[in-house]
Every structure is written in C-alpha cells, then in structure tokens.
Amino acid sequence: MKTGFDQLGFAGPLSAQAAFKRLYFVGTLCAVAFALFASMPLAHAGDVVATAASPGNVLTVEVTTNGEGRPDYRLLRRGQPVLESSRLGFLLTNAPKLERNFAIIGSSTRDQDGTWEQPWGESRYVRDHYRELRVQFQETSSLARRFDVVFRLFDDGFGFRYEFPVQPNLKEARIAEELTEFAVAGDGEAWWIPAGDWNRYEYLYQRTPLREVAQAHTPITIRRNDGLHLAFHEAALVDYSAMWLRRVEGTRFRANLSPSSSGAKVVRAVPFNTPWRTVQIADDAAGLYAAAKIILNLNEPNKLGDVSWFKPHKYVGVWWGMHLDEQSWASGAKHGATTAYTKKMIDFAAANGFRGVLVEGWNEGWDGDWFANGWTFSFTKPYPDFDIEALSAYGLKKGVHLIGHHETSANIANYEPQLPAALDLYQRLGIDAVKTGYVADAGGVQDRAADGSIVFEWHDGQRMSRHHLYVVQEAAKRHIAVNPHEPIKDTGLRRTYPNWVAREGARGMEYNAWGAPGNPPEHEINLVFTRMLGGPMDYTPGVLSLKGRGGRDIESTVARQLALYVLLYSPIQMAADLPEHYLAEPKAFQFIKDVPADWAETRVLNGAVGDYVTMARQDRNSADWYLGAATDESARTLEVALDFLAPGKRYQAQIYRDGDATDFRNDHRHEYVVEQRVVTAADRLTLRLAPGGGQAVRFKAL
C-alpha cells in the first residue's frame, strides 16, 4: 500500500534537482493551506473580523461571528474587557429568526469631531467626537437577509444600533424580541428599578449585587468591584419599543422589549434603524454623569429650526395643595383651579419673577373615577369656575403665562382626537407650555385598534413611542413646549425636538406629600447618577415647609431643597410649595428666585452613587455660578476647589447651609444659615452637610 507521499511520487532515491523541485511543491501546498486556514473563522470563540478604537484609543470594540455564524461583539477599555462576548440578533414573528448562519461581508470606519450648540441645556456647547465602525452581516442561507450594526465609539462610552437596508426577503420586520446582550466582565453592584411592574418608572432605586438584578429599566448604573462605573441605556427611541434589561445568567444581560397588544413588540417596514443601545463608562460617578452627552450625540440634530420661542423658566402652580389634600382636582367646594385662586397665583408669580403658573384640574372630566378610564376628559372645556380666557389675558399683562395641563389617564384613544383643537386653544391664548399626564398602571394605556376596538398597551411600548412624538410635533407647530408625566423614558430626543423640554419618568416630590414611604435622602442622589443620565426631570423641588399631607415630615432639610435646583436639571423648574410657605421663609426663597433654569456649563465636582454629590453650573445669561451639594442619611464634610470660577475674578459667595444641629430626623430640620464671603478661583470651600442635608451657593460675579 502506498502512502500519500508515495502517490505523489515522493518515495525512492532523489537527485538534488528533483529533491529541490519536490520541496518547492510541498512549500507551495503549505502556503496555500495556511492562507485558506487564515481566512476561515474559528469554530469556537470567533476570529476578530472587524474592530475599531475610540478617538483616544480608550475603548475598542471587536465584532465576530462564531462557528454557527452567530454575530457577537465584545468591548475592551485600555485593553481590559468591559463586556465579554455578547450576542446580536432578533426573533421575528413572521419569519425565521435573525440569529445564526451569518457572515460578515464588509466593514468600514469613519471619524467625527465637531461641536454643536444646544438652544438650552446643562451645557451650551456639546462636543461630538467618535469613531464609527459599520459592520455588514448577511445570511449564508438562501434567504440572504442583511443588516448592519453601526458602532460609535467615544472615549467615555459607546452606542450601537441595527440598520436594515432595502432587501428582497425582508420587507417588514415583526420583531418578537431582540437578542442583544451585554455580558458584563467582572462583578459588582447595581442601582436599578424593576421593569414590567405596575408603577412604570416610579420606584425607589434598589442597590444590589449585580447578580441579583432581575429585570430593570434603563438607565441602570453599575459599579464594578474594581471601581469602574457603567450605565446602560438607549438613545433616539423612535417608533420602537423601549428596551428593558433582563439578567439571564451571572452578569450577562439581554434586551427585553416592552410588550405590545399585537403580539409582535415592534412592527417596522424595511428600511429602518433601531434605537441606539448605549453604555456610558467612567472611572467614577462624576465621570459617568459627564458621559451622558453621549445620549444627546446619538440623536439627530434639531429638526424644528429656530426654537427661541421657548424660554427656560421657573414656575409655580395649582398643584401641591391637591397632593396635600387641601384642594381637589375635581369640581366642588375644594376645587383648586378656580378663577379667584389662580389669579392669586398669577399675582404671586409676577411679584417674585416666575414666568409660569401651572393649573391642574381646570378642565371637565375630573369628577368621579377619572383614574379608571379617562373617557370623560375634555381638553377644551373648562369648569364653570375657571375662566381660562380671562386668566390667560390677565397673566400675559403681568408677564406670566399659564402652563396648560392635559391629564389623559393614559387613554390616548380619547386624547389624540382632541389634541389638535386643545393645542389650538392654547396657542390662541398664549399658553406656550403644556404638562401632559398618563396616570394608569403599566399595561393600562387605552388605544384604538384598526378595527375600532380598544386595546391595552404599555407606557413604553412602540405605540406610546409614536404617541409622544406625535404630541411633541403637533405642539411644535404651535410653538408649545411639552413636559409629559408618566412618560416614556428620556433618550435624548430633546436634541431633535427641542420643545420636548422635560418629563417625569421617576419617583418625584409628590411621594413626599402622600405619606410613608416618602423619598429617603439617598433617592435624589441616586437620581443624579441613574435617571438623570437620560435627561431633564421635572422633579418639582423647593418644598421649604418640609411637610406633606397631614403634617408628615419630609426627609430633607431646607438647604437641601435649595440644592436640588442645581442637582436635578430641568429647563422648567417648579417652586412646588404653597405661596404662604415661601413668604414664611424669605431668605431661603431668595435662592429659588435667583437660581436660573438654563446653563452655560456643568461640572460634577465629586460624588458617589447613592451617597453624595456636588455639582457646579454656570448661568447661561451671566457670569454667575451656582453650586449644589447633597448627602444621604450620613453627615459629610466635603472640600471642593473653586477652580471652575473665572481666573482673576472675584465673586460673592452667597452660602445657604445646614445649621449646626440640623438633621432630617429631628426638629432642627428647618434650621439653615445664610453666609457671605468673597472668593476667587484659587480658593477652596468646605461643605458641611447635615444628615439628609445639603448646601446651595450662588457665586455672584463682582
């Protein structure tokens, strides 16, 4: 029997010339074999086929397909893993899943470095600096379906999305689920709220080991054991269901889309793009907040053009009295939205420099069990004791605008047909901002199906993604700003539609009015490093009385209430307390009157998630700076450098601090001290924060 070498004629004695020829032949075979092997993907973990690094070479993404043709990616930071191999793909309801038998058929990169100006915001200018990697996937089966995954790598985080081009075998995507994964490298702890439960986003944040997270809304914030901070979220949520994160094993998380009554969670005609899946990355909590600009940068530029008609402002309202149960939304003896009371609120606003007066309960529909269905609401008919025409005119003469209110009970089947006429009314009366509301349990949104029947949807499903954008676009046509409560989460769409000025989307001040449990001191600090990573929140701070319903104590101090105006950003900031409580505290009220609602620059000076935070912001319309600091239930002394101030310039520091005996748990919670001193950028300031307390400072340029 001949061996393989015998069959090739390699056996037997050889001349020198013949030996050389045969060696040359063997070498050629080996070279060809090596080239073929090098071009094949590995059967197990996958060869790196496409890779790119962030502009400063801080982050690197590696994109692969494994032996089954499953697309995946991993992320490194300075060469160390942040996300281990994480899968990509989709389950569909109308076609085979997009998960395996894919090959990478091409990739490309491009760089972007520019700066754009916000019409309003935490900072006036935003740098947009990234390297983009586009990876093209195609099935190796006869369907040959395609999608691209586009990564944008910043030095402090990254985002990626799926893009579906026009193709013959995928005309419509009916998405049952995304298979997108985030496999966190290493262990740690997480701050998160549950997704898929009844109370939408309005929960206290849980702080648990990473391996104990169940299913979470985003943003979810993680601190690894080595100190690295990560925040998972999404950007540009348009015509798509919101992404929840479900832990599937260990520290591996998978996308879980908000449900739909139609079965498929998302239905889109091809071509289309998904929202961006985002990860913000920093060495500490302060850096994590600074990285939030990624969310804005992953949204499209302003589509509305000149939006100078929106003016960032502060407002008061016919609101807190209802939560205290001293007034009612419904008509009757306790009705809050009366002509007489609203006129007094307009007078108070005008006397103290507030541009707006929010009025809830002005329109017909609040009587009876409005929470149950929302079918009785009219958005154009006021109650008989509320003269909307006269009050609007009265306010405008004093420089005060009424702020409209549309509570819908999440019944968009009733709301959407009335929306154009309701916004026309506001436009005619000079009401240029509206607070919308969608009070209902999660899964309780009422919508009308194509056949006219009523179906039930989720607050963050695809249908509500479309609804909120419809409201914002219709309002923009009439130069009206929108501030939804019980909303879909913030994903940076304020860049594209700057009249979408704020929203709720978290547990706000009203929980302090209702009774135990209120918001503990750590809650607002948690918000800074979780919810606020998405965008502005209408938290409604400034309750100087520190009292809720029935005289219940609020777990805060007066100085802390002032600090919240700096810490919890919104271009519309409410002074939530009753006028008589502000008149009783004129010194503290002065800071609320002074503090702006629009900023030129923001710096986080220090912070730890859930423990403490100090932030400085510069007024966009002056050289003044403002500082806010707050702590959890523990007293803290923090020292901060004032090097954010302009060099060589002198400032009067107007300091509002906790008293020496102040504690949110005792009868001294109302005590605060107002001090003044002259400082420069070369100085340092020592902040002494009482348990549950805070400090607010105005640096007035001299």
Topology:
Layout: H1 4-7, H2 16-38, E1 50-53, E2 59-65, E3 71-77, E4 80-87, E5 90-92, E6 102-117, E7 125-139, E8 146-154, E9 157-164, E10 172-178, E11 181-184, E12 188-192, E13 206-209, E14 215-216, E15 220-224, E16 229-235, E17 243-249, E18 252-257, E19 266-269, E20 272-273, E21 276-282, H3 285-290, H4 293-297, E22 313-318, H5 320-323, H6 339-352, E23 356-359, H7 370-373, H8 388-397, E24 401-407, H9 412-429, E25 433-437, E26 445-448, E27 454-457, H10 462-477, E28 481-485, H11 510-514, H12 521-528, H13 558-567, E29 572-574, H14 579-583, H15 586-594, E30 599-608, E31 612-619, E32 625-631, E33 636-641, E34 651-658, E35 672-679, E36 684-689, E37 694-701
Parallel strand pairs: 22-23, 22-29, 23-24, 24-25, 25-28
Antiparallel strand pairs: 1-2, 2-3, 3-4, 4-11, 5-10, 6-7, 7-8, 8-9, 9-20, 9-21, 10-19, 11-18, 12-13, 12-15, 14-17, 15-16, 16-21, 17-18, 26-27, 30-31, 31-32, 32-37, 33-36, 34-35, 34-37
Helix pairs in contact: 6-8, 9-10
Structure, described:
20% of the residues lie in helices and 34% in strands. Strands 6, 7, 8, 9, 12, 13, 15, 16, 20 and 21 form a 10-stranded antiparallel beta sheet that branches. It has an 8-stranded antiparallel beta sheet with strand order 1-2-3-4-11-18-17-14, with no helix packed on it. It is an alpha+beta fold and 702 residues long. The chain has 15 helices and 37 strands.
